[in-house]
From TrEMBL:
<dbReference type="InterPro" id="IPR043504">
    <property type="entry name" value="Peptidase_S1_PA_chymotrypsin"/>
</dbReference>
<keyword id="KW-0732">Signal</keyword>
<dbReference type="Pfam" id="PF13365">
    <property type="entry name" value="Trypsin_2"/>
</dbReference>
<dbReference type="GO" id="GO:0008233">
    <property type="term" value="F:peptidase activity"/>
</dbReference>
<keyword id="KW-0378">Hydrolase</keyword>
<protein>
    <submittedName>
        <fullName>Serine protease</fullName>
    </submittedName>
</protein>
<dbReference type="GO" id="GO:0006508">
    <property type="term" value="P:proteolysis"/>
</dbReference>
<dbReference type="InterPro" id="IPR009003">
    <property type="entry name" value="Peptidase_S1_PA"/>
</dbReference>
<keyword id="KW-0645">Protease</keyword>
<feature type="signal peptide">
    <location>
        <begin position="1"/>
        <end position="28"/>
    </location>
</feature>
Amino acid sequence: MRGSLRLLAVGALALPAAAAALTVPAGADTAVPAPAPAAVAAPTPGFAGEQQQISTTLTGAQASEVISRPDANYLKVHASALDLKAGDVLSVAGADGAEQRSYTQGDLLPDGLWALSVDGDSVSVSITAADGGAPDPASTATLDKVTRGFSDTELRERRDVKPYSVCGDGTDFKDTVCYESEAPEQFGNTPAVGRLLLSGGGFCTAWRIGAENQVMTNNHCIGSESEIAGAEVQFGYECATCGGGDEGEGTKVAGEEFLKTSSGLDATLFSVKDFDSISEFGFLELDNRLPDVGEEMYIIGHPDAMPKQLSMADDTSDNGNCIVNEVKTGGVGEIPESDIGYQCDTMGGSSGSPVLSKDTNKVIALHHLGGCPNQGARADLIAEEFGLA
């Protein structure tokens, strides 16, 4: 995944001449120290957009303000201040009226208010009365930021120049619907996984864990309470036909409460607002065990912020399927043997994806590292650390 490739320590790249200078004369008591182990670069989210500063003050006496960024995939607006009189709301919608959502004075947090993203390159923001009548002219809203989702062209250009963790010859993952008939059990688990959009333009993958209001992703995607307010999860962002490019907006929900995190396991648990709206998507469960080497597996996620993909084929394995290649390998934190390894294809944005056993269809790891082999934090350790066993 982008920004998280495992890199050799600088010392491991010493030139032969430098190595010769370290030669110890015969009979000397001093031993040459062993080379330092390869360092693991800290993972980071992928980026599908950029945050820009704006300066706009709305009042109840004016018409809507339209913010446009040509060819943007989405726009996400931030209000630094609200003074909405009783009965008034801040209305945010696409310029064509789609994805209309309303926010009240009570939605304002100490750091402001991040509205949910609106697909497309224009967003209309206005102050209206909640009952559809005229707002109080004295109501105001100050807009100070907008996150612009990169255009399709920009995303392709960024994809072309990054050494993503695609193992073997080309990408083996496909739109989830491609497996609807071929692998119905695995396809049946895909709805519980969503695309995670962050306020600054970052993106990862997140998924419902258990029947309660709990969503899991990586700590390097959401690592603190302050990051929850601007985060949103988009369920159902997937193509209706195999390779069709006909994805819809899906169902978007904002982050609500930061529940628990572990930097050592690179895992974060949080809740979302409007939980009932995503109940139809089902949930996944942890497989509280260490998987076997050679066990078949698959990954559900949003590589490169694309519509949801199912990574189940592996052109580097003997049988053509993704398998667990190693267990009890090192990860990014202080916890030893925290990860499992695999050659299943991922990209930036796959961070936070569930890695599932094909035998049990439960989660055996939380994907977080690329580099072939790619790696995920072990589900049995996450279950113990988070009290989810």
